[in-house]
Each structure stands twice: as structure tokens, then as C-alpha cells.
């Protein structure tokens, strides 16, 4: 058993309600807390008293059951949802050990349900029809809208009826390429209602990336809008879609219908380019359909959505989530990690184009009947106070964002925060990358006025929901630590050989058994699923992250240990950027590494070898960067191009990235052993060109 679990076992003999929180926490860990008092931030008694999980003791009681009896634990929770037909036995089945055969994970198989029904109809039946489901805030202050649960259901049903009418059936893929309009969650829910599989592509991806995803999942319909305003800029999304559809059609994937929402604050219909026969205006067709629509009942293990994410090879992976387990898991993690109560107003700044927007803008909150703020714009436009303006306007009580935003606002000065009230806030959240202690403290002390616990939630596209996260009323926090595992999660830290290490340690973060929200496969490539995630350390799911555990058992995420770079919380594969660079006709070879960046967490640093005879120039630098923007998207553009006459390689031809990382971060005295390089002289050449 893991270290954590051993402590849990030893806890079972403790009397209930023993002692103060820190003392009890020390008891959990079987020893006094090793940290200095001032490194611990204890939730106020008022907060803990009203919290769902008010103490470590309560957490442990539930955690222990979730590990010892996962079927019973999750069945009890799942029973609170609507099922047309209850699931069969066993409640779950799994094999996470590649040595024992194919990897498989199933939860609530045989259970018949619908996640859209549980988000909308069920909450309406419970008397929440007139409650606001979505407050929508436009890019420009003063532009806003809202939908009650009743209205949201009507909108979803109209779109669902339209989709059925054009022939979309259960299991069909629907690609959604929309910015943060209300139509984005509406489109996701409409797909879910009729059993179609949505594949949302972040609207910051370029036409080439979009085309690649279209060709992989072959949707019958693509849902988009004509344009969007983001900050001071207008982005013509429909043009990007046109290029992508033309490109995919050329390779044999023809999308029949392009349903286009007229986002008239950004661009009028008349100015939008149009392909007759293929393109349809949303506003011309969807409102004509009935605003009720029968639900397509699906099996818990029927697919809900695909979401592409980056890995260590060039081709993005289509992460597949199914219905029942994902539903139960996102709803439960949302409720406990944010200590959600029906009176809360919740705002998550993530875009629905990423997993955070799937699980914690759309599904998790709506399953709980929450009121969600959906924001179209940029959090620092028209000025760095915009976020807190929105918090005050809607009386946001739970605010969930990424460390990169915290760090960028921190630089703008405290007065942009303090001129707003922020009195409504009670819980803060962080996701996407490790939050450094100084940003944590600024967020806690200044934004939350030392009143709001911070839930630093560690999880991934693949995990569907939170894995390691504070439960805000339960235990003292440490700035920068994601603390302890959620119910049902058994994280383990292993060494290079895959051996579990206990106590205070650091190594590779793995998970030992399945949980309801886990992804089930990579779309169309189960073998890649097995090799990417279950082969490195047989018997475990390997996250790709490094992690250390301190003396008190707290978990500290240390970043990716594979070839993935995390820029402003966006996952980017080094191989994707490299393949974009080498597609430039003057680039012979490229090696990309991540370097620490004050605001973005990491930035992209590219070593580029040019084709023989091509001279270095600023224009070429720009054109290389342009190529990456075009092929992936602006968010993946390298910050630095470092000219490299050649790259440091071992005698077998492998690029030594370790050396490149040190050169990129100018840690020149830490290059380590370079004697195994085929040509150690390369290193000096690179250093000489470092600032050229
Ligand atoms: C990183 C985003 C530290 C991590 C939900 C992970 C984090 C990757 C945290 C997944 C956190 C996410 N602390 N690191 N609280 N949250 N990460 O798939 O490296 O876009 O593997 O999912 O982000 O990114 P993804």
C-alpha cells in the first residue's frame, strides 16, 4: 500500500473529532508536521464549519472507504443522478497492467443515462428552472446576456433537433470550433443530448491544426461562428474554417455542413465569406426548431467526447471520455474541491476548447445546478482590472484560473485589484501548471484578502477531473502544493525503475487503480494509449509529470518529465513545434526545449539548423515563427530562435536535449558530461551564438 494509504489505515483507530486541525493533520501523518508554522495556511474556523469536508478526519473516513470499497463508494454517489436503467455488476472493471493483457477501464457499464438530461432536465425538475445557468460577459464591457436553466434547455433542444434533422445520429462526431459564446456549451450539450460525440477544437488553433483534427475524427458537421473579438482584435474564425475544410476535403474528408453562428458584435453576415450548399447560418435555421427534444439514452460507456491533446510525438492524441463515469466524477470533484453550495456564483476563466472548460465550465458545474459565468474576452482587456470588475458585477464566489494569469496581473500592480470590492469571493482555484509560492501568496493575500482557500487542482485532459487537490475546509494548505489525492485516487511516486518510493521523496507521478473519470482510449489508436500511458511503468497509469512528496505527505508537482512544454497552461509537444519548423524550406533541423518564463511558466526555445548556404537573418527568424503560428497556432510560437550550425548529438545520433536545456537557460556551468557527444565542439559554437 502507498504511504498515504498506510497512514489512512493507522487513522482508523483514532477517536473521531480528535483535536485541532493541524494537530489532527499531524496525527494523520503519524508524526508532528515538519513544516514551520508560517508555511501552513489554516482555513478559518468559520470556513471549515460550513464546508462539505470540514476536517481531515472526515476526509479520511471518506477516502478510506473510496479506496477499500470503490464500487460501494461510487455507486452511492452515482445513485444521486438520473439513470433510465441502473448499471449492472460489476460496478467497474479494469486492467491497468500491460503485462496482464489489454488495458481497459469501465465504470457503470449497462447503466443507461444521459449527461445533458442530468445537467438540465434534472435540475429543472428539482425546481431550478428559473435559476440562472449562464451569465455571459462579452469581450467589451457592457455587452452581456444570461440564460436560465429553462432557457438553456430550450436552446439546447432547438440545436439538438436541428442536428437530428440533418442526419446526426448517436455515435456521430460533431466538430465544434467556437470561442466562448454561450453557443459553445449549448453545442456541447446538444450533442450529448442526442448521443453525438463532440470534439471541441480550441478556437486559437490554426487552420492546419483544425484540418488535422477534422481528418482524424471525420465529423459530418462543423459548428463555428463568423468572427470573434478578443481584446482589441477581431479574429475571422470562418476564414480559418474555410481553409481547414478545403484542406481536409482535398485529402478526402468532406464535411457536409458548416453551421455558422453570426457573432454580429464582431462581424456582420454580409461581410462573411460563404460557401453555398455547405454553409448555413445558425440564426436562420436553429430557432425554427421545437424547443423540446427527447433524450437519446446511452450506455455509461458510450463515448461523450473526444479532445485532442499534445504528447511527445508530432500527432495530437484524441483523448476519449465516456458518459457515466465522467459525469459522476466531474460533478463530485467540482462539489468537493470548490466546496460548492447552491448559492455560489462560479467563474472559471478557461476556454471550453481545453479540458478545464469541458469539465469545469460546462459539465461539472451544470450537473450541480450551478450558475456559471462564461467570458468571451481576455482577462486584462480593456485594462488589468477586468477580472475583478467581472467578479464584482456577478458577485462571483468561486474563481478558478491559471497561474499564468495570476502572475501577469501581479505585475500590473495591486491597485488594479484593490479598487474593486471582491467581497463575494470565498474560494479560489488554480490549474494548468505548478503555482509558484509567491504567486500563490499574492493570490491568497491580495485577491482573496487571506479569507479564501486556494484549491490548486492537479489533473490532466486524460484524467477527466481533479486528481490531487485541496479540499478547502479540510486541512492546512502549503503555498504551491496540490496537497492530497481526491477520493478514489491512489497516486504513487516511482523511481526510474518503476519501483514505488515511500515517505519523503521525488520521482515520477503514477496512479495505481482506475477512477470513474479516467479516459478510456485514444480515438482510433488503443495501442498508442497503452504504450504512451501504461508501458513506461507497468501496472500504473503514468502521468508524464514529476512530483515530490514532503515530510508531511503533501504533494508538490514539479512539471512535465516528457517532451511536453507547458506554456501559459497550454500543453505543447516539442515534436509538434519541431515538425512545423522543419516544414520551412530553409530549415534543415530543429530542436525545441522549454525554458522558465516569469509569466508564462515556460516559453518555447528553438534551436534551428539552416539548409546549407542559407544565411541567418531577422526576416528568416520571423518567417520561421510565422510557420509555427500557421501550423499550430499563435500560442505555440517560439519566443526565441537560436541559430545552430549543428546540434549536439551522441555518437548514435540522438540529440542531447539536456545540454540544449542548459544552454537555453544559460546555465552554462551546469552542462554536465559532454564527452559522449559525437562532436563536443558543437557546444562552444552554440554558446557563441547564444545572443546573436
Ligand atoms: C500540468 C489541464 C501542476 C501538468 C487540466 C499536467 C499542473 C498538465 C496542474 C495537464 C497543477 C495541470 N499543478 N501542474 N495544479 N494542473 N498541470 O491536459 O503538467 O491541459 O500533466 O490539463 O498540466 O495539462 P492538460
TrEMBL record:
<feature type="domain" description="Acetyl-coenzyme A synthetase N-terminal">
    <location>
        <begin position="59"/>
        <end position="119"/>
    </location>
</feature>
<dbReference type="GO" id="GO:0009698">
    <property type="term" value="P:phenylpropanoid metabolic process"/>
</dbReference>
<comment type="pathway">
    <text>Phytoalexin biosynthesis; 3,4',5-trihydroxystilbene biosynthesis; 3,4',5-trihydroxystilbene from trans-4-coumarate: step 1/2.</text>
</comment>
<dbReference type="Pfam" id="PF13193">
    <property type="entry name" value="AMP-binding_C"/>
</dbReference>
<dbReference type="Pfam" id="PF16177">
    <property type="entry name" value="ACAS_N"/>
</dbReference>
<comment type="similarity">
    <text>Belongs to the ATP-dependent AMP-binding enzyme family.</text>
</comment>
<dbReference type="InterPro" id="IPR042099">
    <property type="entry name" value="ANL_N_sf"/>
</dbReference>
<feature type="domain" description="AMP-dependent synthetase/ligase">
    <location>
        <begin position="125"/>
        <end position="514"/>
    </location>
</feature>
<dbReference type="GO" id="GO:0005524">
    <property type="term" value="F:ATP binding"/>
</dbReference>
<dbReference type="Pfam" id="PF00501">
    <property type="entry name" value="AMP-binding"/>
</dbReference>
<dbReference type="InterPro" id="IPR020845">
    <property type="entry name" value="AMP-binding_CS"/>
</dbReference>
<dbReference type="InterPro" id="IPR045851">
    <property type="entry name" value="AMP-bd_C_sf"/>
</dbReference>
<dbReference type="InterPro" id="IPR011904">
    <property type="entry name" value="Ac_CoA_lig"/>
</dbReference>
<dbReference type="GO" id="GO:0016208">
    <property type="term" value="F:AMP binding"/>
</dbReference>
<dbReference type="GO" id="GO:0003987">
    <property type="term" value="F:acetate-CoA ligase activity"/>
</dbReference>
<keyword id="KW-0547">Nucleotide-binding</keyword>
<feature type="domain" description="AMP-binding enzyme C-terminal">
    <location>
        <begin position="576"/>
        <end position="654"/>
    </location>
</feature>
<dbReference type="InterPro" id="IPR000873">
    <property type="entry name" value="AMP-dep_synth/lig_dom"/>
</dbReference>
<dbReference type="InterPro" id="IPR025110">
    <property type="entry name" value="AMP-bd_C"/>
</dbReference>
<keyword id="KW-0587">Phenylpropanoid metabolism</keyword>
<dbReference type="GO" id="GO:0019427">
    <property type="term" value="P:acetyl-CoA biosynthetic process from acetate"/>
</dbReference>
<protein>
    <recommendedName>
        <fullName>Acetyl-coenzyme A synthetase</fullName>
        <ecNumber>6.2.1.1</ecNumber>
    </recommendedName>
</protein>
<keyword id="KW-0067">ATP-binding</keyword>
<keyword id="KW-0436">Ligase</keyword>
<dbReference type="InterPro" id="IPR032387">
    <property type="entry name" value="ACAS_N"/>
</dbReference>
